[in-house]
Amino acid sequence: MRMSFRAAVSVLFFVNGMTIGSWAPKLPTLMSRLEISESVAGLIVLCLGAGSMCIMPVFGAMVARRGSARAVAIAAWVSAPLLMLISLAPDVWSVGAAVFLFGGFLGGMDVAMNANAVAVERNRSRAIMSSCHGFWSMGAFAGAAGGGLLIQSLGEMAHGAVIFAITAAGLAVALPALLQDAPAGDAPRAPLRLPRSPVPYLLGLMALTAMIPEGAILDWAAVYLRQEMGSSLAVAGWGFAGCAATMAVMRFLGDAIRHRLGAVTTLRVSAVIAMTGLAVAGNAGTAGLAIAGFAMAGIGIANMVPIAFSAAGNMPGLAAGMGLSVVTMMGYSGILLAPGLIGWLAEHASLGPIYLGLALLLLVPLAMSRLARSADFEAGQP
Prior knowledge:
The protein is 78% helix and 0% strand. By secondary structure, it is mostly helical.
């Protein structure tokens, strides 16, 4: 029996999330193996974001020209073995280059799979974006929670090999079943210029400020728990895992919540909950309380980004993938670039006050929440 379009794109979200989640416990391992400080580790994280910023627009254009199914297949297969390449890299420079490619092609995959999810929403005349991101968070939870245990028990290289094997199996099943949304051969090509309307850029700013805290948890929660609270590597991986677990649950509930409350109200409530969770984590005196704070932050962060992506993907008058590419690229600059700055700040202050500051940052999407109206649509129409 053929896998449904929704199931196929959901597998891709899971695989992408698992790979990103596997990065969370890897950073403290790299710091130990390469004997580097937080500021140098921050530069490695910056390579992750730089790769994403450079390669994401290429895949946005590819989605517009060729459709999301082809674009996501290329990005997914190229990114699949890169975690092993990071494990094999012998020094800071080669690790930085491998991380650049890792961030770039995972980011390209992200643009394409979100575009495919929007196409499936239109095909089904029903919102699925939050649940797709739920599968991403489920994968991220598995990658973060299991990654620390795998590295601790089997070693860094074996960890990369296991993740590659799972990824390859998922891609082999899901890619042939994707919705083929490529434009017809005789269809006129829309111009691939950047949007002139300010709305995609404002939605991108909303996504950026929502994703900076997520990136700070992804990259630095394990360091916070291990170096500032003295937890083991296995426990440290639960900083992001706790966040990803609650994000997964709330994203599976998110489509129904959004349908009941509307995108704007859902975004406002989510921002307040996320701010509270970050404040708890930043003030925590124990690893358990910090993990609980990160989990609460995940409840709030969960549906903020899917709402921004749906709003961008359902904007009329733009070439397919271009509005979403703008929002995705700006948003992922938050999850990928800002943690590099956090590494520099962590050299001069503890991570606790930094998480408190990130709680205040969420006042931005709270203030801009009315822009999310276009995420609400009936019968597949924006």
